[in-house]
Amino acid sequence: MMEKLFTRLFFGLVALFLATPLVVIAGVSINEKQSLTFPPEGFSLGWYAQIFTDEGWRSALFTSVLIALGAASLAVLIALPIGYALWRKTTVFGRIVQLLGVSPFVLPPVITALGALSFWATIGSYGAWYTVVISHAVFFTSLPLVTISLGFSTIDREVTEAASTMGADNRQILTTIVLPMIAPYIISGFAFAFVLSLNEYIVAYMTVGFTQVTVPIKIFNALRYGYTPTMASISVLFVAVAVVVFGLVARFGDLPRLLGAWSDGGQK
Amino acid sequence: MSAPARTNASGQAALAFPAVMLAAFFVVPFGLMIAVSFFSREQGGFYTPVLTTANYQRFLSWFFADILLFSVGLSALVSAVCLTIGAPFTYLLSRLPRRSQVPWLVAMMAVLSLSEVIIGFAWSTLLSRTAGLSNLFVAIGLMDGPEAWSPSFTAVLCGMVYQAFPYSILVLYPAFSRLDPSLSEAARTLGASPVRAFFNVIVPSLRNALVATFIIVFVFALGAYLLPQLLGRPQHWTLSVLITDQAVYQSNMPFAAAMAVFLVASSLILVLLSTMFGGRREAK
Amino acid sequence: MSTLDLVAVTKRYGDIVAVDDATLSVPPGSFVCLLGPSGCGKTTLLRIIAGLESASSGEVKFEGERIDATPVHRRDFGMVFQSLALFPHLSVRENIAYPLKIRGRGKAEREKRVAELLDLVRLPGVADRPITQLSGGQRQRVAIARALSVSPKLFLLDEPLSALDAKLREAMQVELRQLQERLGITTIVVTHDQREAMTMADAIVVMEGGRILQMDRPIDVYRKPASPFVADFLGQTNCLVAKPGKGGAEIAGGTIPGLQLGAGRREAEISVRPEDVVIRPAGDAPIPATVEFVRDMGSAVEIYLSTEAGRMIAQRASGHDALAVGDEVSLSIAPDAVVVFSEGVAR
């Protein structure tokens, strides 16, 4: 009994710690006046409308979403062949490419950002829209790589052999068995990379900071040069997007499994 | 040629595209950054390819030694706090039925994915005079008037723990969820209390995973580039903040690159150390 | 003409020889079991026949023509895997229709065939269920139906029943055999379970260490094993060393009157099945023994006996006088029940 109470209390405190900052900005975002006050004075959803009516915020959101869609797609295109090749046969070269795919995410983000800045500046593409898409894709490749590798590991070799005894050639096995079976893992990897790219600041700033404005860049500028409640409402929107996306991943996939739990661990 | 051999060949050909992409847009930029760290600064531009070690010499001063020491100390503190709360939390979480774990995992993923900008903004608001927590304390009579708690060292620490905590949970999660539940049950049947079972049985059996996690979270915290700037005073700036500052605001790419190389080197050594402790598996 | 012929098939993995010079011919419509302990090369041999592995040397012929170079997906064989290898992302119907779909058959034909097959394996009404919602026995039937859906030229099964519990396994053995007889399809099954092989097969191929030791009708493999290993692997046996003696053969501490070991042999290894060891009162028969343990299994009783030649096992129907541990008895063995191995005595 004591034990249960303790667990509840502990979980409650952690939840409080995680939720409080978000509750405060949610509160700020429904302020009626353009002032940073909490508890909110009055109630208005105007600052949410502002995200879409204000030219600056709308285009920042649009830019961010486009970049994230492009980067997440490219990240999946980079990760998928690595997972496939390693599933087929583990080679030293395959391992090296895998390591390169994972490294950018483990290193401090400033490193990737600075590397990208040096590179794009040197080849003269500094500020071009595609630079951030490519750099984000490389930065976040490790996410689809982890989920897709996990997906491949769920395909028992006998399953593809069975398909071949039934008359399927390699291409048919790939399209009718392998891809459908790892599709949920590709989608989760895409979702992870999408949400992280949406939120990423430093790489975006060092590649296209002077030509494009993404939502994190715009929030940062607002933070430095003048408060507006729209930054609160769009932050809440971003939290909501993350919760919805990961919630969907959990709804249609096995989130504990994706995050590294054994498949059969206490499944009820 | 036999059928199995042919399929192997086509599997390896798939590596071409990712290998080219990662080489061109990760390895080359990374190498270039190292090269730039040995080049001279050019006013108004990025760099001129004239070899120099001045960037590294400048780095070897007390000012930067101080910053390095502060960065390392702060990151170690953040990692320690995350682990102290995170290890028992992850343990209890992994004992829940899967269905109940999911909302927590979704929450962790969501917070982890939040932009440092948003986390910084949220915490600076939470600790501000006009919209912060102190207003709440005033309202319930604990304080006389609202106070600004940010910028301060505590604010930096809170923000960074907030950012790193979900990360530490997700790094610990595989090890804890794969732990044999009968382990603590065995300890319990031998008469140990839950708390004692946790410290005498669980912690030692996951010692390697815990050490590895400490280092991984430490490196993660070392990478925070905005929170010390948004929530702290200049004396709370870390190496990552300084690199960003030099690269973007001082336009001194070579010096920023030199510091970045140093940061990578120290991170890599630590990551290598963590893999030596081995408790880490491939997933995450 | 036989359906399948293997000629001197050998498979090496580096220094390891998984299949060693296997020569075999399978008559049309027959049911053959590859039987042996794990690691004996039986699964590798089946995979070579299927085309999933290629032999290092030797020939694989189907209806007289070499098929070594034909890739798996062009062989038109049906195979059931040990893990069953059902496609988890497809329904029962889609699993069974998969081979038809790959061959571009129309929807109407596929539907008709799925219904027929589900009938055949006695699984009506589950067509639209996902694979994950089936029981072990149901999955088994789906895997069999799927492998049969294009009427394969050869039906291969790799330990197909190993995941089932004992009772269901026995029932499935009978069902599988009846199914095969009805379809008249040439079938090769890999198994390590001798009861399973005895139940289903027209012919049993006993393998050990990559080599084929014997291929015969089940009763012949049982009654006339080619080597002590085969005798021991199929059911229980008493392996003894015998020497020529007056009026028969001698074993340690006893005789088997009338047993001829063959001209000029000074000793030979022999095998006697437990049911051929007859227990008599002490002194009535030529081999004295003491009862060590009695294992009453209801339908039959096994008696473990200690003799000078070592432990022997006798089996008899229940209903005889009860024997107790420590009883002194004597044993007799009829010479025509003894198998005399031609190879020398292994020491």
UniProtKB/TrEMBL annotation, chain B:
CDD domains: TM_PBP2 (cd06261). Pfam families: BPD_transp_1. SUPFAM superfamilies: MetI-like. It is a multi-pass membrane protein. Keywords: Cell membrane, Membrane, Transmembrane, Transmembrane helix, Transport. The chain crosses the membrane at residues 12-39, 59-92, 104-126, 153-176, 197-227, 255-278. Residues 68-274 form the ABC transmembrane type-1 domain. It is found in: Cell membrane. Belongs to the binding-protein-dependent transport system permease family. CysTW subfamily. This is ABC transporter permease. It comes from Jiella mangrovi. The lineage of its organism: Bacteria, Pseudomonadati, Pseudomonadota, Alphaproteobacteria, Hyphomicrobiales.
TrEMBL record, chain C:
InterPro entries: AAA+_ATPase, ABC_SmlMolc_Importer, ABC_transporter-like_ATP-bd, ABC_transporter-like_CS, Mo/tungstate-bd_C_term_dom, NA-bd_OB-fold, P-loop_NTPase, Transp-assoc_OB_typ2. Residues 4-234 form the ABC transporter domain. SMART domains: AAA (SM00382). It holds the Pfam family TOBE_2. Keywords: ATP-binding, Nucleotide-binding, Transport. One of its GO terms (molecular function) is ATP binding. Belongs to the ABC transporter superfamily. This is ABC transporter ATP-binding protein. It comes from Jiella mangrovi.
